[in-house]
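Input/output pair, single chain:
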Amino acid sequence: QAFDALADRDEHRLVVAELPDGAVVGYLQMTFVRGLSHQGAERALIEDVRVDRSRRRSGIGCRLMNWAIDEARSHGAILMELFVHDTRAEAHEFYASLGFRSEHRGLRLPLR
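Output:
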């Protein structure tokens, strides 16, 4: 249901990584957001990147992210942002290897 709720919206991109046998081993969600701070230009926000724990370090995450970077560029986004929990040191290293750098500190307010 969550996939269907997002799949029909133009601002969202959802990509699933599958093995040849059809087993899902990863996914990525990207949303295009326009902002006043960039004079209305779009930025790509990576909401989720998940790779099955048993498949990490096999290149799946890199392929998902490279797809997202190419898609964002072709869509005309001026930058890409994502959030990673402070405790996920390996994830920070992974994104740094792709050229991401830490610039902001995110805050969260649960509403439910």
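The mean pLDDT is 89. The CA atoms of residues 78 and 97 lie 20 Å apart.
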